[in-house]
Amino acid sequence: MVRVDERDDIGTGVVVITLDRPDRRNAVDHETLLALLAAQRAHRDARVIVLTGAPPAFCAGADLQGVREDVFSADLRRVLHGFTELPCPVVASIDGPALGAGAQLVAVADLRMSTPGSVIGIPAAKLGLVVEQWTIDRIAREFGASVARGMFVGAEMYRGERLHTMGAVHRLGHLDDALEWAGELARLAPLSLAGHKVALEAIAAGRTDDAAATAARERAWASDDAAEGRQAFLEKRSPEFRGR
């Protein structure tokens, strides 16, 4: 089950997506993947998405019960790529274990906030499995090559506090802190954030001269928001960005 809440009380366009299977420690089953895909489609215009899990976990992994493994894997890939393709920032708020598929969801978030004691890892070597190349590449880029080797070759679990000191987690805190951060992000220029996200994803894919990134940059520079940002700076006031 997935719970989706629009939180305009925090900031315009803030959407909270909560993995809500606490009896299964929020392990993602096929129904959950389909619900995540639906949430991505429904909230492409969000200013910020916060992805979290209902206590006691962020996500304890994959639950393949009742579905073929190839179908599950294909839809998990769609979910992971879907978060990277959203134009808005995705903030992972991690409180409790984020293992296997949970760590994959953490890795596709743009920004990560974790409680100090939360545990993140990929226990594939304890199950006799090999993770697909795309996920290994993603975790190596987002968490660092040393952490990736620890997770995949050493089956090591990392606490949020340790990952924060290594730069893989951006801030330490709880969901309330992540929501406050989301409110701050929602006041930034949406086209700027979207353009930077496209450019970063292009670099991750090895495309240093990407047409989509160029188009996003040109759109932002020619936007009303860019004019508003300059005018607000001259008038010494906070800008009001509208995403156009």
Give a verbal description of the structure:
With 244 residues, this protein is of the alpha/beta class. It is 46% helix and 14% strand. Strands 1-2-3-4-6-9 form a 6-stranded mixed beta sheet, with helices on both faces. A 3-stranded mixed beta sheet has the order 5-7-8. A hairpin with a 7-residue loop joins strand 1 and strand 2.
What distinguishing features does this structure have?
single chain; 244 residues; alpha/beta; 2-enoyl-CoA Hydratase, Chain A, domain 1; six-stranded mixed sheet; three-stranded mixed sheet; 10 helices; 9 strands; 46% helix
Name of the CATH homologous superfamily of the largest domain: 2-enoyl-CoA Hydratase, Chain A, domain 1
Strand content: 5-15%
CATH fold assignment of the largest domain: 2-enoyl-CoA Hydratase, Chain A, domain 1
Tell how many strands the DSSP assignment holds.
Answer: 9
How far is the first residue's CA from the last residue's CA?
Answer: 34 Å
Write down the Rg: 18 Å
Question: How are the strands of the biggest sheet laid out side by side?
Answer: 1-2-3-4-6-9
Structural class: alpha/beta
General form? globular
CATH-level-2 architecture of the largest domain: Alpha-Beta Complex
Number of domains: 2
- Quaternary form: single chain
Indicate the percent of residues in helices.
40-55%
Mean pLDDT: 95
For the biggest sheet, the summary is: 6 strands, mixed
